[in-house]
Amino acid sequence: MVPTSLTTSATIFFLLLLAIPICLEAKPLKLKQTQVVFYMHDWETGANVTAIPIAGLPKKPWAVGTFATIIPIDDALTETIDRNSAQIGRAQGIYVNSALDGSDLHFLMSVVFTNKQYNGSSLEIQGADRFFNKYREVSVVSGTGMFRLARGYAILETVYLDLPVSNAIIRWNVTFFQFSTTLNHNVSYTILIRCACSRNGAVLSVPGKIWSFTSFGTVFVTDDPITEAPDPNSAPVGRGRGMYITSALDGSTTHVLISIVFTNGQFSGSTLEIQGSSPPFQKYREVSVVSGTGPLRFARGYAIFETGFVDTPIGYSVIKCNVTIRTA
Ligand SMILES: *[C@@H]1O[C@H](CO)[C@@H](O)[C@H](O)[C@H]1NC(C)=O
Ligand SMILES: *[C@@H]1O[C@H](CO)[C@@H](O)[C@H](O)[C@H]1NC(C)=O
Ligand SMILES: *[C@@H]1O[C@H](CO)[C@@H](O)[C@H](O)[C@H]1NC(C)=O
Ligand SMILES: *[C@@H]1O[C@H](CO)[C@@H](O)[C@H](O)[C@H]1NC(C)=O
Ligand SMILES: *[C@@H]1O[C@H](CO)[C@@H](O)[C@H](O)[C@H]1NC(C)=O
């Protein structure tokens, strides 16, 4: 555990090195089971579209049922099959049709809860949505807030499908388990990501719309330097490599899919996998650490992002990133 009086990131980072052997002594973990059922409204056409194809194969229709179509989503999640029933959250992220015969969608998304019970918490979803099967399963790889370190699965069932116009309602039955956080050994450290994503430019977005950080469906690929302190000339720690997708229809949230690739110090060559929904205009936002490699193999946890400095015109920002993980 890191004393809160420590303020320099260098010291905190050093403590991570010291803390690793402690992690190996983790006690047996208790599991808490949670089950949630909801309906996902995936609407590509008609009123209030929530899923928009941004890319696909040349000379082929960009549609949910066609191989290689890439679709960012901000789908409503409701209590009942009725699209206007109480909303419990949003499914925000992206899916890609990943079967040559068009029968499968690769999901990379966050279930972001907004209902009273789970408000502000999220689940990270990854998996193969073989949508012609009556039932299929995707994975819950992690979570945030109340659902930190969650793992589980979701059974999906299509309860409404109009493939010609690409609209569907999917019933989700999610079962996940959580490690008791009080039994976890964990460590915190601080790094800084200089997100130059806006300046480097988007690589993909909704055709005919402005491609920007606050436009739904815009995809950025990043390779951001990570340093120990806000000063760009401070000691390098690694790189933040991966992609960001603006995943809220109103532009208020970004789906982050990055690896922290350590290039210096003891963890050089190891990585942490970061995934989650990050509303960049909120002071603090939490994403999941879903795994790691090298000395950080089996890492699980969460990262809290805090914007330290923004230069909007050139799209340059410095983000403080406080990662809490356990490796056993
Ligand atoms: C990092 O987060 C942990 C808990 O999530 C907190 O205890 C710690 O004070 C934070 N450290 C910094 C430097 O913000
Ligand atoms: C679309 O959204 C508007 C405004 O929120 C709402 O009044 C309308 O009922 C919605 N239409 C459908 C088909 O859900
Ligand atoms: C959820 O949290 C947000 C931000 O804290 C708050 O504005 C909103 O009213 C909350 N919603 C519910 C249903 O509690
Ligand atoms: C959800 O799935 C579990 C199996 O994981 C099953 O036992 C349960 O009956 C299902 N619940 C609903 C409401 O469909
Ligand atoms: C691990 O972190 C959680 C939440 O940040 C905290 O409640 C818990 O006390 C920490 N456990 C240890 C052993 O550091």
From TrEMBL:
Keyword flag Secreted:
yes
Q: Which UniProt keywords apply?
A: Apoplast, Secreted, Signal
Q: Which domain of life is it from?
A: Eukaryota
Annotated localization: Secreted, Extracellular space, Apoplast
- Annotated function: Dirigent proteins impart stereoselectivity on the phenoxy radical-coupling reaction, yielding optically active lignans from two molecules of coniferyl alcohol in the biosynthesis of lignans, flavonolignans, and alkaloids and thus plays a central role in plant secondary metabolism.
Hey, which family's this protein in? Answer: Belongs to the plant dirigent protein family.
| The name this protein goes by in its record | Dirigent protein
Source organism (scientific name):
Vitis vinifera (Grape)
